[in-house]
């Protein structure tokens, strides 16, 4: 659900150059050279065309690619420093990093989320081979290269477009692979919430993959490659598609809006916060050891009842949220990042921010300091026979421990959030996302071979 205390990472404007350990830029000639064409691979002419695209972007394109996870928090650049949209394709995110890409990477315009179940007869051996294939494919595609086998050419002529591919393990994966002793306590199933209307077929799963990019074709190309790589080892359990505002669509970098028209990204933890790593990532000395530098992600499909929401007056909508719709500022005054005055009353002695306002209930200081890194996408899956939109939020929330992050906030929302009347939680999942793979390794290697 749109969570004011833990909102989305805002998508950065092109040209933003702050750095982060999870997103780095390499010039075009840093991509590894590939040899002669292999059966099912890409032709040399294709390699030249994609590398030429990266190499001709110039300094502007490289500046865009340097944008890191903290980029969305930087001050707005002056107009003359904003890179043109034509440079978007040059953005490149590194695969071999401390934390997997796609966690602190600036929010991309297009996203896919897919869960897999291992097939009957597949176990630890098949999972090892699968994660090797997936990691190799992710590394190649994120560098702007073709897939190793049977590339579909969907991304021909495109650069990496800030593509990220992130992998996680569900609770059921460990029993299927004989690794129950390695299953983290933090991966215990989430409790039931009164607002849940969950479809089990679209929830959980053995394996989870998140894909994001600034180009929809590049994102789909990666989705198709990952699905094909699964082969006979795993089958798709569920898949969801999301979108966000494209970088460059606004005159200056700003917090994204969700489908309710609300600014959704005001109070996200920032990488510059002294306790950011403590809240979001498992420490290097964490337990179990294979989760060092990893994180836990809660994934929820939250349908917005837009017909009901849009019947409310502007004031009613703002009272539900506790913030101004136009600026995101608290109703008690100031700007978007101003701390709300929860005790302030009007001339009649009534609280200006209602007692059940979403922003009041979700504030960290109202939930024992609980915080999550929100990195959500909007979705729209068409209209029903009555013209009601199937649309809302793919809620993606990262934390070092869901029992200290997501669970206490959601329990409090269950007890009286004004927004609850306008949303419906329809699917849910919790996944353990290990740290990034070192050079020469694949994601999850310490778990599967440790």
General description of the model:
The longest helix has 19 residues. The chain has 450 residues and is an alpha+beta fold. It contains eleven helices and nine strands. The relative contact order is 0.19. Helix 3 runs antiparallel to helix 5. The N terminus is likely disordered. It is globular and about 70 Å long. Strands 1, 2, 3, 4, 5, 6, 7, 8 and 9 form a nine-stranded antiparallel β-sheet that branches. The protein has one domain. Its main location: other. GO terms for molecular function: ferrochelatase activity; heme binding; metal ion binding; peroxidase activity. Its EC number is 1.11.1.-.
Report the end-to-end length measured between terminal Cα atoms. 37 Å
What is the average of the pLDDT values?
Answer: 85
H/E element sequence: HHEHEHEHEHEHHHEEEHEH
Give a short account of the largest sheet: 9 strands, antiparallel
Shape: globular
Radius of gyration: 22 Å
Question: DSSP helix count?
Answer: 11
What is the helix content?
10-25%
Number of beta-strand segments: 9
Any low-confidence stretches, pLDDT <50, length ≥5?
Answer: 1-79
Beta-strand fraction estimate: 15-25%
- The count of domains is 1
> Structural class given helices, strands, pairing?
alpha+beta
Keywords: Heme, Iron, Lyase, Metal-binding, Oxidoreductase, Peroxidase, Signal
Subcellular location: Cell envelope
EC number: 1.11.1.-
Family: Belongs to the DyP-type peroxidase family.
């Amino acid at each position: 659900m749109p969570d004011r205390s833990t909102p989305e990472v805002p998508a950065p404007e092109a040209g933003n150059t702050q750095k982060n350990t999870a997103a780095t830029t390499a010039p075009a000639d840093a991509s590894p050279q590939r040899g002669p064409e292999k059966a099912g691979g890409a032709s040399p002419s294709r390699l030249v065309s994609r590398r030429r695209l990266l190499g001709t972007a110039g300094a502007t394109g490289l500046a865009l690619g340097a944008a890191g996870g903290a980029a969305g928090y930087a001050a707005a650049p002056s107009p003359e420093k904003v890179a043109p949209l034509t440079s978007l394709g040059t953005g490149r995110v590194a695969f071999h990093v401390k934390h997997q890409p796609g966690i602190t990477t600036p929010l991309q315009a297009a996203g896919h989320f897919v869960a897999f179940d291992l097939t009957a007869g597949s176990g630890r051996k098949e999972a090892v081979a699968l994660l090797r294939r997936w990691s190799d494919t992710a590394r190649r595609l994120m560098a702007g290269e073709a897939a190793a086998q049977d590339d579909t050419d969907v991304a021909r002529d495109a650069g990496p477009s800030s593509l990220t591919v992130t992998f996680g393990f569900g609770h059921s994966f460990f029993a299927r692979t004989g690794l129950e002793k390695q299953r983290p306590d933090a991966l215990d199933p989430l409790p039931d919430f009164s607002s849940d209307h969950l479809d089990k077929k679209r929830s959980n799963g053995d394996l989870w993959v998140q894909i994001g990019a600034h180009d929809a074709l590049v994102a789909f190309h990666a989705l198709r490659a990952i699905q094909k790589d699964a082969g006979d080892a795993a089958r798709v359990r569920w898949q969801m598609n999301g979108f966000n505002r494209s970088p460059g669509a606004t005159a200056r970098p700003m917090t994204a809006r969700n489908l309710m028209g609300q600014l959704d990204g005001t109070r996200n933890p920032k990488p510059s916060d002294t306790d950011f790593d403590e809240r979001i990532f498992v420490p290097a000395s964490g337990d179990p050891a294979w989760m060092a530098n990893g994180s836990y992600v809660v994934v929820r499909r939250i349908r917005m009842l837009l017909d009901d929401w849009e019947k409310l007056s502007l004031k009613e909508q703002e009272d539900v949220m506790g913030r101004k719709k136009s600026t995101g500022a608290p109703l008690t005054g100031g700007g978007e990042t101003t701390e709300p005055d929860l005790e302030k009353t009007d001339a009649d002695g009534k609280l200006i921010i209602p007692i059940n306002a979403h922003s009041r209930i979700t504030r960290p200081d109202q939930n024992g300091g609980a915080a999550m890194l929100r990195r959500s996408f909007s979705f729209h899956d068409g209209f029903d026979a009555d013209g009601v939109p199937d649309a809302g939020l793919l809620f993606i929330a990262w934390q070092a421990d869901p029992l200290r992050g997501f669970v206490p906030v959601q329990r409090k929302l269950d007890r009286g959030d004004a927004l609850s009347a306008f949303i419906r939680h329809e699917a849910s999942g919790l996944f353990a996302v290990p740290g990034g793979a070192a050079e020469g390794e694949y994601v999850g290697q310490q778990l599967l071979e440790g």
